[in-house]
Amino acid sequence: MKLTYTRLWAASGQSALESSRILVISGSATSVSILKNLVLPGIGHFTILDSSVVTPEDAGNNFFLEGPDSIGKSRAEETVRLLGELNDSVEGIAEKSKSLEDILEKDKEWLGNFTVVIAHNLGKKALDSLSAILWQDPLKPPLVVVRSAGFLAEFYIQYHEHAGLFFVELYLKLFPLNLEMKSLKVIPKLQHLSGSTSRSLLFLNTPHLLISRR
Predict the structure, then answer these.
(1) What CATH code would you report for 6-165?
(2) Strands 152-158 and 143-149: what pairing?
(3) 26-59 CB burial, b ≥16 within 10 A, e <16
């Protein structure tokens, strides 16, 4: 099943979404909930980097695990499998053979395969190293840092540059502007009324109306 949301972010936005490659560090309940909202509209690819196994605590708070049946299995594999059921057009990979520490030390270029990196509840040392590596090269993907504890959460975005062209394009498609006034016919009586109106009204900070009646 392939879902599209072009009414929300136009064809260009849907195209960018479908070509995106998301790396999520940690297969926690929060990370999987974030991915759920990306998989449904149809990202192109996601990878979950997580070498841990499902614990009873994971099975109790993660809807994308099959309860006791998932305990002891790879957390990345279980969450990727169940997320894939939401949208079979999205490619998902479970990376359980690598650790973030090994990647940061020996395989930094691997991070360049993605368009966005999302990290959840990383330790300070690992997060500082990841942030520095991604910031050194403008071609590296932006970093989204999420911290959560119970119902409290905060997030940060590290991004080299942000342009609002997409939002301008979307606005113009939804609300096309017509700046041509060649065909506008001015009513003589209204023109005379506006010209005779006290000039003090023209300098008010609030808009005003001129109402004419027969």
Answers:
(1) 3.40.50.720
(2) antiparallel
(3) bbbbbbbebbbebbebbbebbbbbbbebbeeebb
| Alpha-helical runs (H) found in the chain | 6-18, 29-39, 56-61, 75-84, 100-106, 124-136, 165-174, 188-196
The answer to whether 119 touches 144, Cβ cutoff 8 Å, is yes
Residue 83's alpha-carbon distances to 32, 47, 121, in angstroms, are 8, 11, 21
Q: pLDDT tens, 14-40?
A: 788 889 999 999 999 999 999 999 999
Tokens of 138: 């403008």
8: which 2 tokens? 């929300």
208 DSSP β-pair partners? none
Q: What's the rounded mean pLDDT across residues 73-94?
A: 94
Per-residue pLDDT band at 122 (split at 50, 70, 90): very high
Report pLDDT for 64. Answer: 87
Token pair recorded at residue 58: 């994971």
The token pair at 21 is 């490659």
Residue 93 has pLDDT above 60, yes or no: yes
